[in-house]
Write a structure and sequence with these properties.
The complex is a heterodimer. Chain A is mainly alpha-helical. Chain A is built from seven helices and two strands; from the N terminus they run H-H-H-H-H-E-H-H-E. In chain A, helix 1 packs across helix 4, helix 2 crosses helix 3 and helix 5 packs across helix 6. Chain A is rod-shaped and about 100 Å long. By secondary structure, chain B is α+β, with helices and mostly antiparallel strands. Helices cover 61% and strands 13% of the residues of chain B. Chain B has five helices and three strands, in the order H-H-E-H-H-E-E-H. Chain B has a three-stranded antiparallel beta sheet. In chain B, a hairpin with a 7-residue loop joins strand 2 and strand 3. The radius of gyration of chain B is 16 Å and the shape is globular. Chain B starts with a helix and ends with a helix. Classes of the chains: A mainly alpha, B alpha+beta. Chains A and B meet through helix 2 and helix 4 of A and helix 4 of B.
């Protein structure tokens, strides 16, 4: 919020000043301290112009409007000020921040995506294994990957198989009818 | 051509010139340019502050806050050594260009 006071200028309506400075503030991509200083400087300039015009017989409200008009549209002034204050260092910092955000978002997205696929496959395999065991339907998981034994091993193998784009039923999570003696 | 259009490209030179004799704040700079031009022109105040901030970023000006008699602080601008060197070069450029323009305008007037 722009600070418009305390001032001794004879402007009767601070809302005009507030709206003008707010419009500048919203378009200034600067740190808070720098933004505050820019607004203070522009406010001080408006005070000077208003004082000058009032001393020459202008009405205070009209003087405020005239002072703002002399600075031009606030959004244009803000854009020009932002451009003027943008150094190569600022541009590099902005580029660095964007790159860091893009990379971290990409990596975390990849991790979350793979984890979601793995957990889903693991849960599905566990569920099938348990259903087969509890209902005695004769269905069981048949993991064909070497060294994998038991329910958990089958489920883990299923998850890995999915991540490796193996064919789920045939290579890793095979469903077969239990042979009865 | 509008007078403001002619002045626009010279704003940097005008600002550096009026700061040659000491530090001034924004409104004073605009007033000083108006006075020294014999009230012929005044810089656009909307263009003045971006120019001041650009020159400060480039190291030609140094800004500092100072008190004013009315309460709010004022931002004073002073030339740096780099700014003085920039002013000297800009003056040479200006003399060359203005002599060239005068030559062309004079030729057109004569025709």
């Amino acid at each position: 919020m722009p600070d418009v006071g305390p001032r001794t200028s004879p402007s009767p309506d601070w809302s005009q000043r507030y709206h003008f400075l707010s419009a500048i503030e919203t378009r200034l991509p600067l740190p808070v301290d720098e933004r505050r200083e820019v607004l203070e400087e522009i406010g001080s300039h408006l005070d000077d112009v208003v004082d000058d015009l009032v001393a020459r017989g202008w009405d205070a409200g009209a003087a405020e409007r005239r002072a703002q008009a002399r600075l031009g549209p606030p959004d244009l002034l803000a854009d020009e000020l932002a451009r003027a204050r943008r150094s190569p260092r600022h541009l590099l910092e902005a580029a660095g921040v964007s790159l860091r955000v893009a990379v971290s978002t990409g990596i975390s997205g990849l991790i979350v995506g793979y984890a979601a696929v793995f957990v889903t496959a693991f849960a599905a395999a566990m569920a099938l294994q348990m259903i087969g065991a509890v209902t005695g339907t004769g269905w069981k998981l048949q993991c064909t990957l070497p060294g994998r034994r038991g329910c958990v091993g089958n489920a883990v193998s299923s998850g890995i198989g999915l991540l490796r784009h193996d064919e789920l039923p045939r290579q890793c999570l095979g469903l077969g009818r239990r042979r009865r003696n | 051509m509008a007078r403001s259009e002619l002045v626009k490209g010279t704003l940097t030179l005008l600002v550096l010139s009026v700061l040659e004799n000491g530090e001034l704040y924004g409104y004073e700079i605009a007033q000083r340019i108006r006075q020294r031009s014999g009230e012929v022109f005044a810089p656009s105040e909307g263009a003045l502050y971006p120019t001041l901030h650009r020159l400060e970023r480039e190291g030609a000006l140094q800004a500092s806050w100072g008190p004013s008699e009315r309460g709010p602080r004022r931002r004073y601008y002073a030339l740096t050594a780099h700014g003085r060197s920039l002013l000297a070069n800009a003056r040479i450029e200006w003399r060359t260009i203005s002599a060239g323009v005068a030559g062309v305008v004079g030729t057109l007037t004569d025709a």
